[in-house]
UniProtKB/TrEMBL annotation:
It is found in: Cytoplasm. This is Protein GrpE. Keywords: Chaperone, Cytoplasm, Stress response. PROSITE patterns: GRPE. Residues 10-28 have a biased composition (Acidic residues). It comes from the Bacteria.
Length: 183
């Protein structure tokens, strides 16, 4: 009897297993994927990965460009102020070309020279520098030629005289030097 019960139980277990297999096969038979479907899924996956890589590259480029713009803003933040102050510096230098007479006028000129030097030092601290001109080879990026002359003392295409000083802020030209150039 026990043997019969055991055999019956084995038969029941096998039947249940078979039924479970059939149920699973029915459930997953719809999940079977053809080779074409698998290939299409791979292509879609590749397209998604490519889009992700492009988005990451675009984001990296955007971040780098933003950092460069911020750096340029910091580097040239004072450019507009300097452009406004350069004519003041020109006027100081024109004023120093006038001969002064008398002790009071001399002391006044000395005081103005001190203000000029302090003003120039502040501009130097910001990175403003004078563009060298006289005796230098003509460079259209740094010099604005307003006249051409013939002078045997200078080689061809060399600046003979500076008519107005030029200035640059770090590596950017704020105002080119106005010059006479030897032919």
């Amino acid at each position: 009897m026990e043997e019969n019960k055991q055999q019956e139980q084995e038969i029941i277990d096998e039947t249940e297993e078979q039924q479970e297999r059939e149920i699973l096969e029915e459930e997953y038979s719809d999940a079977e994927i053809s080779v074409e479907q698998l290939e299409q899924l791979r292509k879609e996956n590749e397209q998604i990965n490519n889009r992700l890589l492009r988005l990451q590259a675009d984001y990296d480029n955007f971040r780098r460009r933003t950092m460069q713009e911020k750096e340029a803003d910091r580097k040239y933040r004072s450019q507009s102020l300097i452009e406004e102050l350069i004519p003041v510096l020109d006027n100081f230098e024109r004023a120093f070309q006038i001969e002064v007479e008398g002790e009071a006028a001399q002391k006044f000129a000395e005081g103005m020279k001190m203000v000029h030097d302090q003003f120039k030092a502040a501009l130097d601290k910001e990175g403003v520098e004078t563009i060298p001109a006289e005796g230098e080879p003509f460079d259209p990026h740094l010099h604005q030629a307003v006249m051409q002359v013939e002078d045997d003392n200078y080689e061809s295409n060399v600046v003979v005289e500076e008519l107005q000083k030029g200035y640059r802020l770090k590596d950017r030209v704020i105002r080119p030097a106005m010059v006479k150039v030897n032919q």
